[in-house]
Amino acid sequence: MFSNGIKPLFLHLMATQSDTNTIYESVIEEYILHWLKSLPYYEEHSDLCGTSHLKEDPLNRKVVWSLVKGSGKQTIVMIHHHDAVDIEEYGKIKHLALRPDELIEALSKKSIDGISKKDLESGEWTFGRGSADMKAGAAIQMSMIEHFSQEENFNGNLLMLSVPDEETLSKGMLAAITLLTYLRSEHDLDYILTINSEPYFNQVKGKAIFYEGSVGKVMPVLYVKGVKGHVSDPFNGFNPSLVLADLQRKTELNIQLCDSTGNEATPPPVWVNEKDRKKAYDASIPEAASGYFNWLTFTRLPSTLLKEIKSIAKKSLRDTLVHFQDAYEAYCNLTGDDYEEIDLVRKVYTFSELFNLAEKEYGEIFIDEYSIYENQVLDLLDEGAIILPEATTRLIEYIVEYVSLSGPSVVIAISGPYYPHINNELISNGTRYNFEKRINEIAAKHYKLVFESKPYFMGISDLSYASWVGNQEDIETIKKNSPGWDCLYKIPFDDLSTLKMPVVNIGPWGKDLHKVTERVLTNDVYERTPRILSELIASILE
Length: 542
Prior knowledge:
Elements: H1 3-15, H2 24-37, H3 40-44, E1 49-53, E2 62-69, E3 71-81, H4 100-107, H5 114-122, E4 125-127, H6 131-149, E5 155-163, H7 171-186, E6 190-196, E7 207-211, E8 213-214, E9 216-225, H8 240-251, E10 260-261, E11 264-265, E12 270-276, E13 288-297, H9 302-335, E14 347-350, H10 351-383, H11 388-402, E15 409-419, E16 422-423, H12 435-446, E17 450-454, H13 472-480, H14 493-496, E18 503-505, E19 510-511, E20 519-521, H15 522-541
Parallel strand pairs: 3-5, 3-6, 6-18, 7-17, 14-15
Antiparallel strand pairs: 1-2, 2-5, 4-20, 8-16, 9-13, 9-15, 10-11, 12-13, 19-20
Helix pairs in contact: 1-6, 6-15, 8-9, 10-11, 12-15
């Protein structure tokens, strides 16, 4: 039904390098736009497809959109991303990373794991960078646009958004939120569903998975101020790295910090960065240290997480000071020195509390100078000299130094990207389409395949920005505790909060995303997923 058209499209998308956060993204955007404009439908309705530029984007990237307009207002939105992670991991065969046939031959001569080797030899899988994540999903959705644009008396509307930057900060989907609200008004649309087509994860043949939501992510940044001292006199200082290490020990792999629903649970937090803030080597105790970690959510609110990490930070400071005092007393006993009570007052602030402290003390002078520094940090971010969590940390550091905050103290902030959790159970009337019944009826009719519904896509996805289930307190918590909000990073919450529709992620079977052995089940791309998706769309619009 679809394979003749999808195969060349998929292979062309595969062959078009689109490394995330590079100029290559603009190249594939031009290809997608050209492909759309070549369809007879858009030759006649040129105003129903185009691009929307990301604001103030140094790479000049765009969201590519296309609308098939039928009768009525009801509109299904399809989203996918066209960027992919880079090909450097392929090493000496990276020139083959985008050529599936030649890559299979090269991989057959390499040492790869048993499951990958079995899939390689089966001939049933397409290997290559972006094959699963997510050129396959892009090709499938583009084929839906072509298919429904040929329908006579099409009931409803179908809108596709192809976005950049999903693999980094989701700037593409954040821009698409505003585009969605504009197109809704411009074309008098009523959004009733968003479909994403990220690959599903599974090791069992004959069983497929789709998702009725996407996991959320908050990234707390912890800045610890210590007391500087010489390493030869450790009890005349206080090492902030010791507090940071205790914070990691109390949070990383802590099952109590998991979010759960039914038999599903988020993975526990994992720290992805810890370091002291020394700018050069010397024989002194670091004055400050910082780090950040990923905290995934199903239902827990940002305000709740912030209170929880603040409580943990207070315990870490307390426990580290007890350890410090015990060590000092033991050392005094060892050397015969008199023991004196250590006079260190511990303090823990959220970023909003620290900011308010500076504003209260220094007023407009602080606001003006902070704004100037914010823009300096933005320049470094745009140049690629630093990444967003480091930019967040530098803004914390600026205020800490501005108010001469003494140690030991901890400042807690939030860094982008922030991904709200989303699930149909949390949306008003979000389960009205009974996806499991609909999808399995279609799959049973054409294939010996059973689909399992899972509440959350665990890979973190742009689906987080397709519908809003939070509240005003969530928005204020994120805004006030994200250094550089509206300058370094922002989410158009005003527009996002107007999107209230069910979501579903249905895509092909993929494996080993971001690895050399990344692959997608070929038949899912060329036949099964397109057929199931087209019949699902038609049944809902009917």
